[in-house]
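FAQ
Q: What does a multi-component entry look like?
A: The components come first, one per line:
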Amino acid sequence: MKKVFSYLLVAVVLLFGSYASNAADGKIKAAFLLVGPHNDGGWSQSHNDGRLYLQKHVPYVETAYSETVPEGAPCEKIIRDYIHKGYNVIFGTSFGFMDSMYNVAKDYPNVIFEHCSGYKTRKNMGTYFGRMYQADYLSGLVAGMMTKSNYIGFVAPFPIPEVIREINSFTIGAREVNPKVEVHVIWTNSWFNPVKERSAANTFIANKADIIASGCDSPASIEGAKKAGVYAIGYDRDNHDKFPKTILTSRIWHWGVFYTKAIEEIKNKTWKPTPYWGGLKDGIISLGKFGNTVPKKVKDYVLKRQQEIIDGKFKVFAGPIYDNKGKLRVKKGDELSDQDKLSMQWFVKGVVGTVPNK
Amino acid sequence: MKDVHHAAILVILLSNAVKAGTILLYPTIGEIFAERAGVLNLGVEGMMIIGAFFGFIVAHVSHNPYLGFLAGVLAGGLVSLIHAFISITLRGNQIVSGLALTIFGAGFTTFYGQKWINMNLDTAFHTFNIPILSKIPIIGAILFNQDIIVYISYILTFVMWFVLFKTSVGINLRAVGENAKASNAMGISVYKVRYLWTFFGGIMAGAGGAYLTIGYAPFWLDGITAGRGWIAIALVIFAMWDPIKAIFGAYLFGSINALQFQLQAAGTTIPSAILNMLPYLVTFIVIVISSIIVKARHIQPPKELGIPYSREEK
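Then the predicted structure of the entire assembly, as tokens:
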């Protein structure tokens, strides 16, 4: 019994010993939770790109990542394991990690948590996201001017505000330049399922869609568009060079911008758990390269609008905005508040699809 | 004009439904034969995903879809021998062994599949028209503008129906499934027959899996078979252990798959979660209906299905 106790004691000393050494060398150890594979070609890879960017530009940080982390309770254990290994900053990069992070954050007030795309905060837990709707809108302008069939297919993961906002802003852009456009939606009910994404794209193409956009995490729908010889709007990362004839433009995340900012603040002890929602101006999002077939006239129009958004002269969700059942949602002269943008559960006029009732 | 447009959509969708159905048709026919010989193999899902995995890798490395397909077929056959060994030689519990095979397939491919995730095939099966038949309106465009794997499945279905009901090989294998002891007394090697048709079941499951990752969705993804192996097992009952009937079941499920996306694209108000559930929901319904028919018509599953055979027992 005594022996067992002494072993335990040694274990405890070792455990706390390693804590102390981590704190002493002054290094920040940041762990990243990815919902998909780190090389998914989309969302998770864009976060991993951000991690590598951080690693390259900030000398005093050490990073690690876990991929294909399940959303919900199981991810709690992964977070706790990282903390026991001495990691003191946790970046969770999917909406479904929110409650687990929120729970663990309570137990470890000295560890800093940053959660992407959620809304729960604590003293040691902040949130971050980007105003991707700005880039979605700009890519919608390109799609609206390039479509000939006026049928655009949008392959969408889950009916949550983040995705609905994406589809709405894209549609607002497309219909600003081409009021005949209809944007059709298929939900895959999965962040990463190339098989379903491809099937959805093929269904749109059978229905005479000539542009495929996607909010899912893999480039599978772009592959489908390429094979059928129609256009696609890229997402997450710039895959233009892989599909120069297919991709018209892309909506791209630059997470490294935020990750370096957060780590520097933590180092300088100026970090606060504020909700971060950067836009085009901050460089956390951007449009990708234009496809070879996009005419100069289209590019000029889009770049002009982009500058207006950066200068704050143009608002994507400015009224009047009607939903797709004909109800006026934003009055002329008004703009949708950030709060309403973040909780959006309705489609704008021009979207063919259904938001399931809660 | 609008009707022409709708007909064109329907043709494309049904042609995709045939492809999706082919993924199910191969494993269903394989399982029909294994069960007819008395071996219940619940490892179809596992054999399919193993076939899907090796098919994808070999097609990716060799840039040859046909070589990949062959590899998938072989891999499915090889893992089925595990089940054959346990359930025929060792006379183990077939249900447990089959389930273990399914779990093994999922675990193995998840573990070794990490680095293949999101890789694309730069190669595909060549689609070609069958002369004359492809000129039949609508049907021609749906059934006879496909690739070689789909055509083989047509021929195979009829050949296997013939083998099962019209040849001595078929009589022997059915006899083994109905009454192994009597078959043995008549000079049929029960072990040999059961090994052979269990292996055949594995080959066919491998073929279905390989067609999924090479012909239908040229990606690798964890759990890419998504329960199709289980649907194939349900289709065996739906088909009442008859290869020809299996073809209808397989295409029915292929169509449901295509339908869930088409309904959404057309702006249905049915929630997408329910549409995603459709194939599995229909599996339930199909089992219920076919069970009733089986009972009403006094169709029996193979009598000694799932019962191990031992020569020593007198």
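Q: Is there any commentary attached?
A: Sometimes. For this entry: The radius of gyration of chain B is 20 Å.
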